[in-house]
C-alpha cells in the first residue's frame, strides 16, 4: 500500500500556518468523503508527522491518477511525495487545476483580504459538494461570491478555469478589483474582452458591472472557449434580481466579521449585524443555486455561533454537511475573530 507525504505550505500569516496541517488534514478527509469514496479514511486518514524537522501529513492509500489530481488541489499542499519504506521521499508530479501564474492570487494585498489558502479550501469543499469528481476536475464551474470584496474567491475560481461572478456593495473595493483584473489581463497578454455598464431591472439601477471574457490561450479565445469574470457593485440582497434563479453551481462567501466600523453596509442593509445580513441574504443566495448546487460560508463564530448559522441554512432549505471533517475547520484569526467554515447542499 503506497504511503504519501504532503508538505504543508507555509502561509504569510503565522497564526494560519500553525493551524494549516489540521485544516488541510480535515480538508483532505472532506474531499475524500465527497470525491474519493472514502479511500483515505478507510486507511485511518492522514496523520501529522515531523521528518527532518519539518511537519508533513502522512497517509496510506491506494490512489488512482484522478484521485491524485484531486489531492493536488488541496489548499495548503506545497509538495506531494511518495514515502518509501526506507524513509526516502520521492516527489510526485502534481497535476493541479491551476492554469495561470500564481501572482493572480498574491499581487493584491490589503486590510480585510481573506486568507488565500482558506479561500481555496472553502471553494474546494463547496465545489466538491456540488459536483461529481469529473465535474470538479474538468468542467467550467459557475461560481458566485456575493460579498466578494477585492476578489480573493474570484481570482481562485479564475485560476481553476472556472467562471467567476462577484457582487460587493463597497464601491472602492469593486473599483480596486476591477482595475487590478484589467491590468493583470493586460500584463499577462491574455486575450480578453471587457464590457462595462449599469445593471437595470424594471427601471431601477441595481449597480454597476464590469464583465471580462478571457481565455488562457489565443486559440481558446478564437474558438469561443472562454471564461467569464464579472463583478457588480451593488447590494447582495438584490443578487436575485441581477442573476436568474438556479444560475450558479456554487455560492461562496467570507461574511463580514462584525467588528471594525460595523463592516456591514448597503442601501438595504444600513449598519446591520452579520447575523441580520446573513438571515436576509441566505434565502436570496439559495434561490440562485441550481438544484444539487452548494453554498459555502466562512464567518466569525464570536458574533454568530455555528448552530445558529446551521439553523438558518436548514430554514432556507439546504442540507448542511455536518460530519466530522466538516466540524474540524474552525480556526483562530485574531483576538476578535474565530473563523469557521460551513458547506450546505441544495437538495437535487
Ligand atoms: C470579509 S469581507 C470579504 C473579503 C473578500 N473575501 C476579500 O478577500 O476581499 C466581507 C465583504 O462583505 C461586503 N458586504 C457587506 N455587506 C454587503 C451587502 N449588503 N452587499 C454586498 N456586499 C456586502 C463588504 O463590503 C466586504 O467586502
Automatic annotation (TrEMBL):
Coiled coil: none
Domain Ribosomal RNA large subunit methyltransferase K/L-like methyltransferase, residue spans: 141-263
Protein name: Ribosomal RNA large subunit methyltransferase K/L-like methyltransferase domain-containing protein
InterPro entries: RlmKL-like_Mtase, SAM-dependent_MTases_sf
Cited Gene3D superfamilies: Vaccinia Virus protein VP39 (3.40.50.150)
